[in-house]
């Protein structure tokens, strides 16, 4: 019998244990005989029978004895140390590390890469959604899983890549500050010169908080009135800015004035403590929170200022390509999400229609009386 259960003594503990084994006596087409005795990786009768079929298939294809397809957990290390280390920004590396540790490895870790199929992926997707994770978060995990499997195929570890279907995510509508809210925030930030400059960099230059914190005086040309965004800081790691490439942004007059007012000699970083060490993320959040509370505005974070920058440009008729260039969007699709009107602008448009119709009505009444 090719599949059977055997009792063996554990060399470390001395205790007797039972194992499901495969014991195959195989004859090759050239008459050569080969006996294979191995412990099944899945310790059930069904698992051992499946393993026996796989071994016989590998012997028939003359693949047995070659390097076996690694399990997902083992391949994770190679994936992170080669592809991710060479191609991903620090923020992406940290994100993939977290997704693999807490979600993907627990789900697929014991499976060989060539065992992962569409059914397994759909089951994983359904479990995560049932656990209350947002569709966008689940799609991020599926993106990581898909890239890992495609990389395995590129380096010829597996031959087939299962289809990865993403969760449908409803169109995202970005929230932003209306003109009056924005001006209230700017007025409130004037009590702190550094807070004012940082807020203006977010709302009138479109920098994200990591780019603001990593900004150096050498990146600024206050005479010409422009800033060159070359890097971002993510949890202490310096990487490329939004879109993965450097961009140059003209500065508004009051942003230039704010930066000149806070010029210091503490070090190369624009936003730093007394010893020249750049702001931590906590320090940046504290400065924004103080200004927001003083302005009496709802709770929001730094990225709301970036949304405000893009939305205000769109509302004032800036071309999508110009907004994409200024914001550093990698795709025009992201930019197009801002090409909408604010609720205030919509109300004004309706008032224009109402005024026009009222004028026409009065004219009609006047004409009728004249007759």
**Spatial order of the strands in the main sheet?**
1-2-3
CATH superfamily of the largest domain: Intergrase catalytic core
Q: Over all CA atoms, what is the radius of gyration? A: 31 Å
Alpha-beta content class: mainly alpha
Give the SSE order as H and E letters.
Answer: EEEHHHHHHHHEEEEEHHHHHH
Q: How many domains, in number, for the residues?
A: 3
CATH class membership of the largest domain: Mainly Alpha
Terminal Cα separation, in Å? Answer: 110 Å
Number of helices: 14
Rounded average pLDDT: 87
Total strand segments: 8
Query: What is the third-level CATH name, the topology of the largest domain?
Result: hpI Integrase, Chain A
Low-confidence runs (pLDDT<50, min 5 residues)?
A: 364-368
Biggest sheet details = 3 strands, antiparallel
Helix-residue proportion? 40-55%
The rough form would be described as elongated
Strand content: 5-15%
* CATH architecture title of the largest domain: Orthogonal Bundle
């Amino acid at each position: 019998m090719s599949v059977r259960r055997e009792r063996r003594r554990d060399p470390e503990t001395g205790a007797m244990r039972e194992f499901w084994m495969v014991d195959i006596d195989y004859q090759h087409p050239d008459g050569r005989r080969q006996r294979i005795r191995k412990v099944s990786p899945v310790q059930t009768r069904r698992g051992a029978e499946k393993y026996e079929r796989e071994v016989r298939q590998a012997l028939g294809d003359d693949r047995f004895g070659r390097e076996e397809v690694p399990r997902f957990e083992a391949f994770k290390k190679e994936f992170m140390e080669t592809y991710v280390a060479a191609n991903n920004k620090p923020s992406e590396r940290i994100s993939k590390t977290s997704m693999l540790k807490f979600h993907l490895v627990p789900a697929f870790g014991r499976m060989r890469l060539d065992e992962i199929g569409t059914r397994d992926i759909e089951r994983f997707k359904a479990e995560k959604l049932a656990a209350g994770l947002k569709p966008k978060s689940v799609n991020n995990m599926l993106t990581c899983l898909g890239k890992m499997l495609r990389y395995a195929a590129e380096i010829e570890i597996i031959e087939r890549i299962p289809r990865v279907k993403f969760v449908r995510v409803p169109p995202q509508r970005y929230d932003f500050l209306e003109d009056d809210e924005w001006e209230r925030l700017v007025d409130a930030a004037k009590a702190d010169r550094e807070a004012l400059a940082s807020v203006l960099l977010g709302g009138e230059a479109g920098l994200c908080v990591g780019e603001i914190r990593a900004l150096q005086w050498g990146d600024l040309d206050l005479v010409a009135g422009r800033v060159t965004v070359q890097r971002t800081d993510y949890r202490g790691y310096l990487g490329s800015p939004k879109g993965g490439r450097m961009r140059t942004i003209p500065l508004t007059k009051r942003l230039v004035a704010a930066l000149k007012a806070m010029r210091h000699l503490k070090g190369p970083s624009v936003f730093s403590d007394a010893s020249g060490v750049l702001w931590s993320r906590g320090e940046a959040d504290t400065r924004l929170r103080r200004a927001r509370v003083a302005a009496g505005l709802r709770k929001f974070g730094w990225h709301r200022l970036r949304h405000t920058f893009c939305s205000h440009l769109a509302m004032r008729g800036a071309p999508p390509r110009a907004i994409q260039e200024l914001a550093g969007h990698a795709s025009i699709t992201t930019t197009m999400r801002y090409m909408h009107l604010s609720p205030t602008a919509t109300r004004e448009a309706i008032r224009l229609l109402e005024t026009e119709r009222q004028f026409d009505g009065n004219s009609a009444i006047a004409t009728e009386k004249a007759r």
